[in-house]
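User: Sequence in, structure out. Go.
Assistant: Echoing your sequence, followed by the structure tokens.
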Amino acid sequence: MNLSSAIMRSGVEPDRKLVWLKITLALALGLGFILSWRLWISSRQFPLVPVLRNLPAVPFPLDYIWFAMALGLLLAICIRAESQKLVIAFLVLAGLLGLFDQMRWQPWFYQYFFMLAALAFYAWKKPAAKNNRKALDCCALIVVCIYFWSGIQKLNFSFIHEVWPDMSVPVLRFLPGGLPPLTGLIIPLLEISIGLGLLTRRFRNAAVVLAIATHAVILGLIVPTGENTVVWPWNIAMAFLVMILFWQNKESTAGQILVPRRGFHAVVLILFGILPPLSLIGLWDSYLSSALYSGNNYRGVINITRGVMDRLPDNLHQYVWTSNEPMFLDTTRWAYGELNVPVYPEPRVFRRITEQVCEYAEHPADVQLGLREKPNVLTGVRVTSYYDCGHLR
């Protein structure tokens, strides 16, 4: 019997679900690491953005050894039955990698990291039944919050009129009349409904089916483009996670999932449930608030002169738009091209990237960051501010 069919059976005990959860998280995170391997090493051209400016980079070849150790720990976590110490060791290595570069704070990494942390905090402790259930409920809270806030983030003009029409291009060839303008509104409402439905025992199974169908549709839209391959295993993993945590789960109530009694569960509620709405007013990072593909985040473009263009390394020229003046270095294309992930869309990250490009400038005005604010929810209008090398330094 394969994993998916086994999960779909009713009456699966918490300790068995815990095994499937651990394996799913380790495999999905391992695939994400492999698909974005340059993100996790220091010897690369795309700038590192450490949490502290003076935090040194992990030197070569230690960065490759560090990365290999992280992958090895994930493999060991899959194999070993009670792997609390292995999970803790991985969290230490991965957590330090996150401190060395904020570009690594991708939504999938953030989710997997804290779900594994929930296992490390609760699972494999006595009394086993009670603590394993706490681990599952803690992970369930993370999944519920991701669906709910992902939907809230997409309730804006930019997603409905820009992001969704671009994503739905593979479907348009089958629809001669195109898609109605407000079709994109269905997506956020569906995600919000899934999140709320997973909390209820009455609609939980239906929400699981909707979630799996949603991820199947998402894969159907993004796989033909061949882009952002790092989120492909994330979508597959999310389908397995909702099955593991919620299918035929008649034990966990909304209160058990949402209301922490103490400890790490409270930390998860704060990070995934309470802080995300602050991103809507710029007080919390959008990628830590389930805002991927929402259109509701900052954007940055680096304008450069011809002289800077000539001094850039040759392999960066492919990321520069030269059809008109001023030329600009597309940070999104650069991040995807070298790291296979999008830019972490926060002003401090765009500024640090631009500072690195300023090293190729002879004059402060030769490089200019165009920082576009989050769009107006109702109109999609963005305010753009400009910073040259003098401002950044």
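User: And one key feature?
Assistant: Residues 126-288 form one domain.
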